[in-house]
Every structure is written in structure tokens, then in C-alpha cells.
Amino acid sequence: MKLVARIVSTFILSLAVIACGGREQTSRSNTGSNKPLTIKGSDTMVILGQRLAEEYMKKNPGAVVQVNGGGSGTGIAALINGTVDLAQSSRAMKDDEKQKAAKARGSEIVEQAVALDGLAVFVHNTNPLQSLSIAQVRDIFQGKVKNWNQIGGPDAPVVLYGRESSSGTYDYFREHVLAKGDFAPAVQTLQGTAAIINAVGRDKNGIGYGGIAYAKDVRPLGISDEGKAAVAPSEATVADGTYPLSRKLFFYHSQNAPERVTKFVQWTLTPEAQALVTRVGYFPLNQQ
Amino acid sequence: MNRGRRIVNALMTGVFSVAGWVAIVFIFLIFLFTFKETVPIFTDPEVKEEANLHKFFAEQEKGETVSDRYIWQPTSDRPKVSLWPIILGTLKATFVGLLFACPVGVAAAVFSSEFAPAKLREVIKPVIELLAGIPSVVMGFFALIVLATWLQDAFGFTYRLNAINAGLALGFALVPIVYTISEDGLSAVPRSYREAAYALGASRLQTALSVVLPAAAPAVFASFVLAFGRAIGETMILLMAGGNAALTSFSLLDPLRTLSATIAAEMGEVVVGSAHYSALFFMGTLLFVITFISNTIGTWVIHGMQRRMGGSAS
After folding, report:
1. Does B149 touch chain A (CB under 8 A)?
2. What distance in Å separates the CA atoms of residue A56 and residue A172, rounded to the nearest whole number?
3. How confident is the model at residue A12 (pLDDT cuts 50, 70, 90)?
């Protein structure tokens, strides 16, 4: 009897869900002019995208902008599948992805850089190390350096934290720091830079990486590129290009995208929107 | 019975049977879909090149330690798709989870069915069953933030997130399963068993442990099997609390990654139809088959027990 009741209630519930779904769709098609602009992609850019969207909606009453995370790869996949208008990505789109998207959407893909970001390497506040070379960071994340004393730190094991493979930060780090090599299997992959900051902040032997904007209660290390002096990540060093691990943050949409998409993208390049970029913790483009 | 009533009866019977069949058809279709996406591993030459049974299970890399020889790195420039680190992670978490949940769940069931006064029992049962209602994401978050810190402070683990932390959090989710089914089994043991034991001069503890518990053994065993099925499939707790490193290691102090967590973490970015995609669906099929087998065994055992109990009481 209990089982029957359960089956019936499940049935009714699913009917209700189906009914609701249908209603939502009709209401959307009724207000065609206010079709929401959907944005998806980089977890690093979620906060940036949301701030921009809020400001944009304030400036343009009636416009609706929805921002979602999931990782750069997820956003690009969604753009290819046509489920979003705009993909946010913290890495450049690969050529084969561009081709796939062009084929699926029937027009070329437009790339627009929107901000600069510095990728920092974080350690626990009590870690005595001040800076590392890119080669040292590579050895650490490839598992060749297993103890902090191998690179002048205390005698303690290195505990690695990184991002999951759908993340643009992961891709950027693998390409620019690991020289396209593989991460050590011991890297603990966490969901989002905030989770890495949280973990490193609680782990005195921990090391992780992520956007500078997230650094809180952890210490970003200075990074030196082959033979040069170490440079600490800061607004000035990222903006003038001396910090070696800086990258562009991108918007991608198809050329035949509706006006609500292109209007939003153009607006993000105005001084007003770029000021917002600085406030979120990234660096405006026009300084470069 | 008048005619109207008969029509309503027939109608409702129809609705119920349709609803029942819909559920069965859905499960069948889900399995069919999962399996269909796995098939390219055996048929598609391009997919077969990168992911096949041999690459999943045989040694592919050279290295000193097992963790260098069996590697899961499907997005690498040179993809490596050994399933061992992930299967091992799943088994480690399940092992710790069951090691915690089985004794605790059974002890709680024995207490509430044999020793607790009726009033206390009225409280214990719903409270433990409420534990089953805690969303696993909340349990995972608790393990990630609180439990991991406690364990590290207490035992000085190198890795905050390890098999013990993840397994314990999983264990919390398994206790209600073990408890509920074991408790039902213990309560179903006929009164005559207990009375016979008391008549022979056995104490309450002796009766509970040497008469009632063995009589309910099939239910207790079934509860373990069902808990195992749940543990294998649990995703969110292990995704958050396990550290998510696909590391081939037998140590419970290393971080781990499970089959379900791998599917959850990687399905979002995978290119549809690629070898990586098929490999993830292969994991899904594997999970489905394991859960199906363990649940079937559990159900069989419960039925067997009910028959035996019914027979002995009459």
C-alpha cells in the first residue's frame, strides 16, 4: 500500500513538473522582446559577469541577463550546443572549438577580451617561502617536489590543490606553468577557486592557484620567470605585464547573435563598465 | 457494488498499474541510454583507440609506484584512462563508510528494538530516520569544513581530505539505512523466541545478542547490502569531502576520487561522443550494474527472511 502511494505521488509530482514547465515556456514566448540574455562559463568570471549584468540591467530597464558558472569548458560547450547566448572563458577558445561552434551556429565566433586577470600561486600564511620560479611551481604541481625542504622550506610534505579539468584556470595553468605536461595524480581537484583558497587557508602545507581577486587569508607568492627577479602579483604588475602569470578574460558569441548580446558586450568595454571590472578585483583592458 | 463504484475501481486500478509500469520502463530506458553511450568503446574505431577495456584495466604506464603506473588523466595531451585509481577510491570510501555505519546502525537498532523503553523508541526511530533526510550536499559541506579540521587536529593527517574523512561522512548517510532495515528485522522476530529464551533463564542482553539478532541476521545482512549500494552510488559527499585526487593508493590517509564523483565533475565539459565521454558512461554502466546486483541480493535476502519467519511462527 505504501509503495502504491509512493508511485502515485511520484506520478502526480512529475505531472505537476511537466505542467509548470509548459507554462513557463508560454510566458516566455509572450514577452519576446525581453528574452533573457544567457551567459555561462568560467567560474573565475562568475562574479564579474554578475556585477556587469546587475549594472547593465539597472541602466537598461527591461533587459534580463542571467549569469551561470560551470567552468570555461562548460560555457564553450554550451555555446557550441546553442544553449547560451554568450560564453565567458578564462582561456582562449581552441581552434577546433571555434570551428565546431561556427558549424553548429552557422556563423563565425566573435572573441572579445573584457578584462585582465593575474593568476596567483597561494600558500598558507605561515609558510616562510616568499617566491618561486615558474620551473619550481611546475615541479611542485607535477609531483617532482614532494617536500617543502626541497625548495628551501620547512621539512613538511607538499599538499597540492587544483581545479577540475573543466576549468579555464586549470587549462591556463597547465599550458603556461606545466608547459602542457600533466598534473601529479595527487592534486586534489576542488570546485572553484574559492574552495581552493578555503582549503589552502586551513592547510599549513597546502599550495594552490587561482585568480588574484579571490586571495583572502592566504599568501600569494611572488613568481619569477627564467632568471628574472620575482614579481609579486598586484594590480600594477599585472597591468604593466611584468607579472608572468597574467591572462585575458574573454566573452564569446556568434557573429549572428541577436542585438541584446552585442549591445551588452559593447557596453562592457565602456569606461563605466571597466571601472566595475577594477572594483571586482580584475584589471581593466585599456591600461595595457 | 454499484456500477459507478465499479468503474472508479477499474479506472484507479488502471492508473496504478500504468504508474507502476512507467517507473519500470524509465529505469529500463535509463539503463539502455547509459549502455548505448558506452557501446562506442567496443565498436567505434576512433574511440576504441583511446579507451578500451584493456586501457581501462591493464597497466599502461611505467613507474616505480602503483600511482605512477595506473593513471586517470583523460584530458591530458596523452590521455590515460586507467579506472583503477577511481575504482580503488570508490572501494576505500565504501569500506570506511560501511565500517562505521554497520556496527553503529546495528547497535542502534538492537538498542531501540530490545532495550529502549517504548517512549524513547518513539523518539529514536524518527530522529535516526530524519538523518536520511539531510541533503548529501549539506553532509559533504560539513565534512569539508568541520569534520576534516577536527580529524586533522586530532590525528595530524597530512591530507585534510582523505578516505577516512570522506568515509565517515558517508557513514553518517548510511546509518539510517542500516538502522531502519535492521530494526524492522529485529521487531519482526516473533515474541515466542524471546519468551523461550527468558524461560531458559537468559538475560535480556543474552536474549538480544544470541537469540533475536541471529534470528534477524538476514535483515541485518540485507541492510548491509543496501547500504553498500547506496555508498557506491553516493556522489556529493565524496565529491566534496574526498579531496578528488585520482590517486592509485591503498592508504586510507590519501585523498580519493570515486566513480560517481568523476562522472559529476567531468561530464560538464566533455565533448559528446569522445572517448572520454564514453569512458564516463562506462563508469555509469559499471555503477548501475553494481548497484543493481547488490540491491537485488538485498531484496532476495529480505524476502527469504520474511518467508522463514512466517513459516516458523505458524
Report:
1. yes
2. 29
3. low
* pLDDT tens string A220-258: 999 998 878 889 888 788 877 788 888 889 999 998 888
Q: Residues B196-241: pLDDT tens digits?
A: 999 999 999 999 999 999 989 888 998 999 899 999 989 999 998 9
Give the model's confidence band at A5: pLDDT under 50 very low, under 70 low, under 90 confident, else very high. low
Q: Is B23 on the interface with A (CB under 8 A)?
A: yes
Decide if A7 and B20 are in contact by the 8 Å CB cutoff.
yes
Number of H-type helices and E-type strands within chain A: 10, 11
Nearest to A203 among B20, B72, B160 (CB): B160
Is residue A32 predicted with pLDDT exceeding 50? no
Residue among B243, B125, B113, B233 nearest B175 (CA): B125
Q: What are phi and psi of B64, to 5 degrees?
A: -75, -45
Contacts of B159 in chain A (CB under 8 A): 159, 188
In 3D space, the residue among B307, B304, B291, B309 whose CA is nearest the CA of residue B225 turns out to be B291
**What CATH number is associated with residue B62?**
1.10.3720.10
**Nearest chain B CA: its distance from A138 CA (Å):** 16
Domains of chain A listed by start with CATH number: 37-116+249-287 (3.40.190.10), 117-239 (3.40.190.10)
Residues 6+ apart with CB under 8 A from B60: B69, B70, B71, B80, B82
Question: Domain total for chain B?
Answer: 1
Amino acid letter for position A72: S
Q: Report ipTM (2 d.p.).
A: 0.78
Range of the domain at B125: 53-309
Residue A169 C-alpha cell reads as 584556470
Instruction: With CB atoms and an 8 Å threshold, state whether A166 touches B269.
Output: yes
Share of chain B residues as helix, strand and coil, in percent rounded to the nearest 5 = 75, 0, 20
Interface contact B188, partner A, CB < 8 A: no
C-alpha cell at A7: 508511485
Search chain B and give the residue with CA nearest A11: B19
Closest to B16 (Cβ–Cβ): which among A4, A73, A182? A4
Q: Does the pTM exceed 0.80?
A: no
